[in-house]
TrEMBL record:
Biological process terms in GO annotation: proteolysis
Protein family membership: Belongs to the peptidase S8 family.
Keyword Transferase part of the UniProt annotation: no
Cleaved signal peptide residues: 1-26
InterPro entries tied to this protein: Peptidase_S8/S53_dom (IPR000209), Peptidase_S8/S53_dom_sf (IPR036852), S8pro/Inhibitor_I9 (IPR010259), S8pro/Inhibitor_I9_sf (IPR037045), SBT (IPR045051), Subtilisin-like_FN3 (IPR041469)
GO molecular function: serine-type endopeptidase activity
UniProt cross-references to Pfam families, sorted A to Z: fn3_6, Inhibitor_I9, Peptidase_S8
Source organism of the structure: Zingiber officinale (Ginger)
Protein name: Cucumisin
Domain (Subtilisin-like protease fibronectin type-III): residue spans on this chain: 561-660
PANTHER family: PROPROTEIN CONVERTASE SUBTILISIN/KEXIN (PTHR10795)
Length: 669
């Protein structure tokens, strides 16, 4: 069994590497393209043959079987193929084709978290219902020997499951593992949110990244396999049109089959407009801190101590001596502090190096440690094969002054320790920010979830840091990034560089999500109407849905008419504004009569009115509509002004956030 699994993984890696090479090589005329054809359609040909016939019509000096990479036919229709630019253009003009786009290589967005969310280990849950939940994980694969995936005591798999990444898998559905830690740090119990749930793992990511064809193949399989939730922490460098985006395409068909897709906002923060997963039918989570900080300090010979966030435990226990402290001063061809351009590796061997820039190659030079000057990531602890810390520019200048004024400067990076962080939760500096650049009036990210220094299972054969020469492969648990799949949120409050465009509705709240009171329902037809309102034509939409969907007379509306729990409005700076949001809520909290009253808090620049301000329900699943009107005088550029609408019946509080914003000058900086 082990040899068969190894063979399958090796074959998968080979296919993925070919995809990566074919999609990036500049020497090949043909590149890998995605040809998306929407939902499955009835045809005189089986889907696979239909795809081959389409290729046969446009290929020049190449057979269809040579060109075809994937045929998607289980849950939607489309294929990946090696095409020239002319061949791709011909296909895009054919009837029944929604889009044709070049394959891209996406990046992975890579314990205490559940306790921090007040989600207790012994919360009242239905074990039978929980064990029938199937979570499809699309990422870098899984290490099944981890204790987090022990199946002892589990019921037989649910009959609906036809089916076949360790870190994100264990945070979602990992079993309880006591005394977990990473070399003594972050000690505690590692557990998933739903430890009895089933996991279906779809490996699409390798050391070079994750390709569009593999991601679509994983969605195609996961939907057909009968999963209930799909989770992936993968994204493009920028947001793309919904039907030229493999994740948006796959998640649309998942939604149409009643499957929620949860994904991460991205790792391109702290700039605005960098959130790359923005489709409204996905739950998108920003990464935030928990109340545990892992800190470290570097001490120089003059006993100057610099306290920073860092992870250095196992190696720093061994490296207790002071080492020479080195800084590359630069010359006519090299910038000061540029450790990517060392003229001679012997310059740094056996030393701690102070760098403004570096690459992984430096860890093969024999350095004893690295101090990285970077103001943008001071809230993140990194793992590397040598002691590594990140310092601010100010601290970097202090260290540089020490180097320049000392004959033989030395330093020592101490062992890390944990401290309590009373300011949590705060959005991570790396977490991608809104607004949504594809549909500006849909707020993304949706919520914030723990994503800094999270302890979870890790492969026993993968290097701890991911660096090839790192020999530390014994860690069962690793501190990385978490994406979560829950629906309600606690308020978070604006601070420097953080607002609703950073954290959405706020910090996820798994306990309250069980009893929400009211819900905002949105199904396939609602998203179709949103696409109509956003300018997608009816012919394309019918191909995507595979039914007789039409753009109704209401298509003179806007995307903000979607029945979304949050409300976003993009306005032009310097001009007065006014807009309305129509919403429908469904009663899921009271079986008999109940009344909800609207409470509004709004920024002083906004005038917000809810009509009606009271809602009456007499039975479960009863629906009620209301309108939220917002207006205001002109706002300056780089502005975000919030409001909150809370429906309360004395027992439940149903909170919706609103944000009105202007253009930001730091888009895509």
């Amino acid at each position: 069994m082990t040899s068969l699994l190894s063979h399958q993984i090796s074959l998968a890696f080979f296919v993925s590497f070919i995809l990566f090479f074919a999609s990036t090589s500049s020497n090949e005329e043909r590149k890998v393209y995605i040809v998306y054809m929407g939902a499955q359609h009835s045809s005189q040909y089986p889907t696979y043959e239909l795809h081959l016939n389409l290729l046969k019509e446009i290929l020049v000096n190449c057979s269809p079987s040579e060109s075809l990479v994937y045929s998607y036919q289980r849950s939607f229709s489309g294929f990946a193929a090696k095409l020239s630019m002319d061949e791709a253009e011909k296909l895009s003009e054919m009837e029944g084709i929604v889009s044709v786009f070049r394959s891209k290589t996406l990046k992975l967005h890579t314990t205490r978290s559940w306790d921090f969310l007040n989600f207790p280990q012994k919360v009242n849950k239905n074990p039978i219902l929980e064990s029938d939940v199937i979570i499809g994980m699309i990422d870098s694969g899984i290490w099944p020997e981890s204790k987090s995936f022990n199946d002892q005591g589990l019921r037989p798999p649910p009959r609906k499951w036809k089916g076949h990444g360790t870190h994100t898998a264990s945070t979602a559905a990992g079993r309880t593992v006591s005394h977990a830690s990473l070399y003594g740090l972050a000690k505690g119990t590692a557990r998933g949110g739903v430890p009895l749930a089933r996991l279906a793992i779809y490996k699409v990511c390798w050391s070079f990244g994750c390709t569009d064809p593999d991601i679509l193949a994983a969605f195609d399989d996961a939907i057909s396999d009968g999963v209930d939730i799909i989770s992936l922490s993968v994204g493009h460098s920028t947001a793309a049109d919904y039907f030229r985006d493999s994740i948006a395409i796959g998640s649309f068909h998942a939604m149409a089959n009643g499957i929620l897709t949860s994904t991460s906002a991205g790792n391109a923060g702290p700039y605005h407009g960098t959130v790359d997963n923005v489709a409204p039918w996905m739950l998108v989570a920003a990464a935030s801190s928990i109340d545990r900080h892992i800190i470290d300090k570097v001490v120089t010979e003059d006993h100057v101590s610099t306290l920073v966030r860092s992870f250095c435990q196992h190696i720093c226990e061994k490296n207790r001596d002071d080492y020479p402290l080195f800084y590359l001063q630069g010359n006519a061809t090299t910038s000061p502090g540029d450790c990517t351009a060392l003229p001679d590796i012997n310059m740094v061997k056996g030393k701690i190096v102070l760098c403004k820039y570096f690459s992984d190659e430096i860890f093969s030079t024999g350095i004893k440690g690295l101090i990285y000057i970077d103001d943008s990531s001071l809230d993140v602890s990194y793992l590397y094969p040598v002691p590594f810390i990140t310092v601010s520019s100010l601290n970097g200048l202090n260290l540089l002054s020490y180097i320049n004024n000392t004959k033989n400067p030395v330093a020592n990076i101490h062992k890390s320790e944990e401290v309590f962080d009373s300011e949590a939760p705060l959005v991570a500096s790396f977490s991608s920010r809104g607004p949504n650049t594809i549909t500006p009036d849909i707020l993304k990210p949706d919520i914030s979830a723990p994503g800094i220094d999270i302890l979870a299972a890790w492969s026993r054969v993968a290097p701890v840091s991911g660096i090839i020469n790192d020999t530390r492969v014994l860690a069962k648990f690793l501190i990385l990034i978490l994406s979560c799949m829950l629906y309600t949120a606690k308020p978070m409050y604006p601070s420097a560089g953080q607002d609703e465009l950073s954290y959405g509705a706020g910090q996820l709240n798994p306990v309250k999500a069980v009893h929400p009171g009211l819900v905002y329902d949105a199904g396939a037809s609602d998203y179709v109407q949103m696409l109509c309102n956003s300018g997608y034509n009816e012919t394309m939409i019918r191909i995507v849905t595979g039914d007789a969907s039409s753009c109704s007379a209401r298509n003179n509306g806007t995307a903000r008419d979607l029945n979304y729990p949050s409300m976003a409005l993009h306005v032009q700076s310097g001009k007065a504004f006014a807009a309305k949001f129509l919403r429908t809520v469904t009663n899921v909290g009271c079986a008999r009569r109940c009344r909800y009253k609207a409470e509004v808090w709004a920024h002083h620049r906004l005038n917000v009115v809810v009509n009606p301000s009271k809602l009456k329900f007499s039975e479960l699943k009863e629906k009620r509509q209301f309108t939220v009107s917002v207006s205001g005088r002109s706002l300056p550029g780089n502005s975000t002004v919030p409001a909150t609408i809370i429906w309360s019946d004395g027992k439940h509080q149903v909170r919706s956030v609103m944000v009105v914003y202007t253009d930001y000058t730091d888009f895509f900086s």
